[in-house]
């Protein structure tokens, strides 16, 4: 347990403050799905502090009371969302700190947890509204087309160039909501990574004066994807292909989403590897490495970079992956 978080505050008052802020966070995060989703960056931090401050029995009691209070204020669905999006994320972060995980491991754990939470909350939203995914997509498509038509009419009323109007109408004809849906898994994954990184940075700020060993800082060069992660995504992609062969619409989303996430994960893995070797082996400063990475992103195609990331994931050049196939071969 953490005896003190803020040195300038009396420990007893500190306990009350942490508990009070945790209650407020739970109540606020359950008001609506939007608040739950955007609040995942901030609301789990009080839960993290509470988990670190008290033993598990007290935490369970306090959590139960907070859930009951949320049930009264927000009802079942709001409470369910805040449990998944706030309490779960806070517990995962706290457990990672207790187990002495470094910054990269914590960000990865938070990213996965937030991705799962977002997916569950989205599924709950569909159940709560009672609308099918197809109907929501059709409504979104019609809403977009109506906005384009309104803008085109507004331009005509204000005697704007007809070329601009034609360009708008061209956007309307080219827009396909299904393409957006296919990108959703990647969007969720990338957004979750950003949210997890922000949460981690805020967490370090809050715990900077705490009587606990902070997570070891690990730079971007230590960010890696295990080959187990790659195998998992390839498996998901295969499942999507199977669904697609049976004419299930969700097959496109699953296969395209898994491949998009894998592709950009490999790109990130490649850039992290470049950063690692330039920093560790050649002692380049951060600004110069950043300039090299930015320049590489313009000069080298994504497929080439992804192949490099795949090679690192399989061959474990940085010796960071404990599940590396290369390591297993050496041991045998």
Automatic annotation (TrEMBL):
UniProt key word Transmembrane helix: yes
Organism the protein comes from: Hathewaya proteolytica DSM 3090
Keywords: Membrane, Transmembrane, Transmembrane helix
Domain of life: Bacteria
InterPro entries on file: DUF2232
Coiled-coil portions: none
Short name of one Pfam family: DUF2232
Annotated TM spans: 12-31, 37-54, 66-93, 105-127, 184-202, 222-243, 255-278, 284-310
Full protein name: Uncharacterized conserved protein YybS, DUF2232 family
UniProt lineage: Bacteria, Bacillati, Bacillota, Clostridia, Eubacteriales
Record keyword Coiled coil present: no
